[in-house]
Amino acid sequence: MSIVITVAPTGPIATTADNPHLPTQPEEIADSVVAAYSAGAAVAHLHLRDTDQRPTADLTIARRTVDLIAERCPILIQLSTGVGLDVPFEERAALVELRPRMATLNPCSMSFGTGEFRNPPAQVRRLAARMRELGVKPELEIYDTGHLEACLRLRDEGLLDDEPMQFSIVLGVAGGMAATPENLLTMVGRLPEGSVWQVIAIGRANLRLTAIALALGGNARAGLEDTLYLRKGELSHGNLPLVRRTAMLARDLDLAIASVEETERLLHLPT
Ligand code: KMH
Ligand code: ZN
């Protein structure tokens, strides 16, 4: 059995003040992704920053980052349409016009730490429809049980293909489900038959929940978007140590690591 490793090199919130090894500029993100690819990552989940490190949906920055990566490795690009809490939905949604192989789809609005993550129903439906039109595979980010029901409604309305649905069970965001094994098990048990899934465990529980997810048959995500630390009190020197550790964990569990081509087949990615 093969598992897919996704690298998430940079998230929407932390800056180099939190971890000086966080890549924020296109060249830095590309270097980090290429290194992660050599360590086994088949997918790169990307957030972009402007020169002041603020999250941005700027299409020039996004295109440049994607091009720099594509020049050096064939990793599958998954653009975040979450982008950052202060970026308007329509700017975030425009990123799918670059036709990445995948993009995130966040089905519901929610509190997100001290901020607000706005995903209004009508705009989510329009984005889902546009992604379907463009052949951009959604990675459905579910932070609560109701978010799963919202995705199933989108599927029932014909806005998502269900072959297979790809879920990220996000645990540990203040405003969503807590990062506990019980919540992971509950959510995995509720996914539709045949779904492809991974856990995105934010913060301290990242390693343990990733290990549980791998043992349960899930894929894995690794990178500084989800945790800035390799272990308690030790900042990760970039994304590579986190990706390497995930690959080692998978191999120790006797799981093969999916190549880009295998991942395309597993996810039935439109070409
Ligand atoms: N960092 C995630 C918990 C997305 O990429 O679409 C939220 C997020 C969503 O960044
Ligand atoms: Zn993200």
From TrEMBL:
Keyword Ribosomal protein: no
Pfam families in the record: BKACE
Cofactor list: Zn(2+)
InterPro entries tied to this protein: AB_hydrolase_fold, Aldolase_TIM, BKACE
Entry keyword set: Metal-binding, Transferase, Zinc
UniProt key word Thylakoid: no
PANTHER family: 3-KETO-5-AMINOHEXANOATE CLEAVAGE ENZYME, 3-KETO-5-AMINOHEXANOATE CLEAVAGE ENZYME-RELATED
Protein name: 3-keto-5-aminohexanoate cleavage protein
